[in-house]
Amino acid sequence: MVQNAxxxxxxxxxxxxxxxxxxxxxxxxxxxxxKFKAVxxxxxxxxxxRITAFIGPSGCGKSTVLRCLNRMxxxxxxxxxxxxxxxxxxxxxxxxIDPVAVRRYIGMVFQQPNPFAMSIYRNVAFGLKLNGxxxxxxxxxxxxxxxxxxxxxxxxxxxxxxxxxxxxxxQRLCIARAIATEPEVLLMDxxxxxxxxxxxxxxxxxxxxxxxxxxxxxxxxxxxxxxxxADKTGFLYVDTTQGGRTGYLVEFGLTKQLFEDPKxxxxxxxxxxxxx
Amino acid sequence: xxxxxxxxxxPSNKIDSDIVIDSGELExxxxxxxxxxxxxxxxxxxxxxxxxxxxxxxxxxxxxxxGGQRLSLGLFTQLPPAAFEHGGGFGNAIVGTLVMVxxxxxxxxxxxxxxxxxxxEVAPYSRLSNVVRMCGKILTGFPSILAGVFAYGSxxxxxxxxxxxxxxxxxxxxxxxxxxxxxxxxxxxxxxKIREAALGMxxxxxxxxxxxxxxxxFPGILTGVMLAVARAAGETAPLLFTALFSNYWLISGGRLDxxxxxxxxxxxxxxxxxxxxxxxxxxxxxxxxxxxLVVLTVxxxxxxxxxx
Lengths: 276, 308
Ligand SMILES: Nc1ncnc2c1ncn2[C@@H]1O[C@H](COP(=O)(O)OP(=O)(O)OP(=O)(O)O)[C@@H](O)[C@H]1O
Ligand SMILES: [Mg+2]
What we know:
The complex is a heterodimer. Chain A is an alpha/beta fold. Chain A contains 10 helices and 10 strands. In chain A, strands 5-4-1-2-10-9-3-8-7-6 form a 10-stranded mixed beta sheet, with helices on both faces. In chain A, helix 3 (about 120-130) packs across helix 4 and helix 3 (about 120-130) runs parallel beside helix 6. Mean pLDDT of chain A is about 90; it is low at about 1-20. By secondary structure, chain B is mainly alpha-helical. Chain B has a domain at about 95-305: Orthogonal Bundle (MetI-like fold), CATH 1.10.3720. Chain B is built from 13 helices and 2 strands. Chain B has helices at about 1-5, 10-20, 35-70, 75, 90-120, 125-140, 145-160, 165-190, 190-200, 205-235, 235-240, 265-275, 280-305; strands at about 250, 255. In chain B, a hairpin with a 2-residue loop joins strand 1 and strand 2. In chain B, helix 9 packs across helix 10. The two termini of chain B are about 45 Å apart. The chains are: A alpha/beta, B mainly alpha. At the A-B interface, helix 2, helix 3 and helix 6 of A face helix 9 and helix 10 of B. The structure holds adenosine-5'-triphosphate and magnesium ion (MG). Adenosine-5'-triphosphate binds near residues 61, 63, 221, 245 and 247 of chain A.
């Protein structure tokens, strides 16, 4: 909530995040799953061509917040949301907005690689087919696979099943699939948690390349990963004082500043591995 | 790598002194209650499986032995014999069964899959879904003769005669609940992450259903359809009220005519097995064997489709 970036000498003009424009302005006042209040008071501005990371203990609502950004939570029965999420100025929870169209522009990569049981090519072309893309599909598929650093590994077997790929390759395939339709924003929920350190590194490098053209929001349990890739980081924590287990945003700011000089005690404890 | 290995102190002497387990402990022994129990239970499962197979095998064996005697090409090409006649076949009954089961599948498969889509995806928690699900479960145990009575009242009386269409409709009523319930189950079994992947890409609900869920659930749906087909092919009672029987081909004026009384293997078996003529009884056995083979063939075709 508090932008602490002002104090940081290494960041030029930090007042408005280096002057980058905010693509998604997420402001969750209260979020419920049925009667359970899962998240409160979380405001995160996600800036263009930046990587924004969400960290925090398990169950604090990182995935919940991320899934709010492209209305994936609409699929959960009993989901209720107060606050607003503005995507390029438009309130995506406004009744006149089609969640399907929102998800077309705000893509998602999930924790578990989830390729479809079809060929590699058809997986990547899936989004193009959905949108009735008329242009050169093969070109777009190739471009997406190249951008996801997978082309060289699969170019000779584009028509074999995607399920025959390794876990790391499957995850890169999912990234290729997500970027084939050229969304504005890419949401990634612990994209590396099922991967080994080398595959993780590749995906991190990939994220750094992708941020040139896309805006990325990522949930991660790996603090080093957040430090390596994220420009801004938000720390969420679970508040148990009001009876429930409600997550909320404790601190948000430039990654370097959040890790080196956290303002809040909870953040300090979490970053230094001290748990109550 | 190498310096890491050398830097780790290896407490070799400690490992030796830690071995306190008598090697006898590791041997297989029925004296341990756990092992003995495991042994007894696995023997029991084998035994019970064999016992369950005895009636199945004897039925199949009897079919092959008694029905196999009369197996010939003529069975497929000839019409049923009259009372004291020799020879003959039941080609018309094979065609009749295939046609009526085909009609039933044409009705119940699209209806079943679309309703299953509604139940599993569109409105799984709605009251309508609960009612349909409930009815489906009741209908799976529905006495098949009632399906016949229903089709008699709603089709035979209305169209003014027994027909293959009426038979097909009666069978489709029996197939529908099986198709709905198994297809719903199969769609449910598609992992949530696959569904999320499609929706997360901006697929509409129906795009998700057509492009991802149904193809992924296809083998499961097919199993349900095959079960339903197998059941329908063997049904006698509903056909007695709807298609009745016929000694002739399903043709009038040189064209396939679905609006006349139609023979079927099941009704032929029912009729002929009660006759006091050796020839007819032998034909009934042969028809039973052919019926089993027809169902088996349909199943094999379905399986090879789902593997693609
Ligand atoms: N579909 C759901 N229905 C009901 N409650 C849910 C659902 N998804 C999450 N929750 C609850 O919301 C809270 C936040 O969950 P969330 O998955 O967002 O946590 P997280 O921070 O992503 O945790 P992790 O790091 O373990 O993935 C948890 O208490 C969880 O039980
Ligand atoms: Mg999570």
